[in-house]
Design a protein that fits this description.
The protein is α+β, with helices and mostly antiparallel strands and 298 residues long. It has 6 helices and 17 strands. The chain has helices spanning 12-30, 45-48, 105-121, 134-139, 159-163, 287-297, and strands at 3-5, 37-39, 55-65, 75-79, 82-86, 90-101, 146-148, 171-179, 183-187, 193-198, 209-219, 230-233, 238-241, 247-253, 256-263, 269-276, 281-284. The strands form 4 sheets. It has a 5-stranded mixed β-sheet with strand order 2-3-6-8-7. Helix 1 (12-30) packs across helix 3. It is elongated. The two termini are 50 Å apart.
């Protein structure tokens, strides 16, 4: 099992900045706050002195692992008869201090209130504003949850002390990102069948008995493995359940052809014909059931 390490090109923080700028520009413009600058600089005195228009500043002041979204299971990726075990991504909480900057305090409070409403309206960043590789994260079922106005954890630095600026009202805004590890284990072709031959040492060759093992997988319509699905061979009176990775197996089968049925807890089904010995079965829930219903309607 060779271990492969390939450090990926990762621009997740720059992509997150671009996504937040697109979201705030779009939503603030919709609500009459046109021409607002979206900045990510440290809000120190020299920066604020150069402002010529209202601005919203998102200062990234903390990065740390998300304990709430910590994945622990390696993922399996199969293709061309081989299996790659992929190390789970590191889930990172990116914390921003969000402030509004205008000439008048009343206008500043209006702008900050609208920013709060915008960020609170999206518990996950919408796909249409995602930049760079963030859209690929969502496609891999790694959403980008966001929280605003939560209490600051102990140990997180006060960013006003860090930048040496004058204290202003600010919002804490936290987005959870995925950092791909670039680490994988490549396995050889998956063994899905096994044959055991037994024979009476004092008997004839005709007393040889062959029993086989077959395996397979259960997936849903989007290609995700389905755990705890019932899998049966009704012709042989045998049943089992799929594991967390969607795999199942049957032991001690005689040679022949068997119907293989799978059913998930939500009622979706799949059916296939399995030859023993053979390469096993890959069942996709829902597709076979739809085909049977269509055939009955015809």
């Amino acid at each position: 099992m060779p271990l492969t390490v390939s450090v990926p090109l990762n621009t997740m923080l720059a992509d997150l900045d671009a996504s937040l700028r697109a979201l705030l520009k779009r939503e603030l413009g919709t609500h009459g706050f046109d021409g607002v600058e979206i900045a990510f600089d440290a809000p120190a005195k020299d920066w604020s002195a150069k402002l010529a228009s209202p601005a919203v500043n998102l200062f990234l002041y903390d990065l740390r692992e998300s304990k709430e979204h910590r994945p622990i299971e390696w993922e399996a990726e199969r293709g061309n008869g081989r299996t790659r075990e992929l190390r789970p991504p590191l889930r990172i909480e990116a914390s921003y201090a969000v402030t509004a900057w205008t000439r008048a305090v009343e206008d500043e409070h209006r702008l900050l209130s609208q920013v709060l409403a915008v960020l609170y309206a999206y518990p996950e960043l919408p796909e249409e504003v995602l930049a760079g590789g963030l859209g690929e994260q969502v496609a891999r079922h790694q959403p980008l949850p966001a929280k605003v106005g939560q209490s600051r954890e102990d140990g997180k630095a006060d960013f006003w002390l860090a930048v040496g600026g004058q204290y202003k009202a600010s919002l804490d805004y936290v987005v959870t990102l995925s950092c791909d590890p670039g680490t994988s284990l490549e396995r050889g072709p998956e063994v899905r069948t096994q044959t055991v031959r037994t024979r009476d040492a004092h008997g004839s060759a005709g007393t040889t008995l062959e029993l086989h093992r077959i395996g397979g997988t259960v997936h849903d319509g989007e290609g995700r493995p389905v755990a705890n699905a019932w899998v049966t061979l009704p012709d042989a009176g045998m049943w089992t359940a799929s594991g967390p990775d969607g795999r199942f197996r049957f032991d001690r089968l005689r040679a022949g052809t068997y119907r293989c049925l799978a059913r998930a807890s939500d009622g979706t089904e799949a059916e296939a014909e399995v030859a023993v010995p053979g390469s096993g079965a890959d069942l996709v829930l829902g597709t076979q059931a739809k085909a049977r219903r269509a055939k009955r309607r015809r």
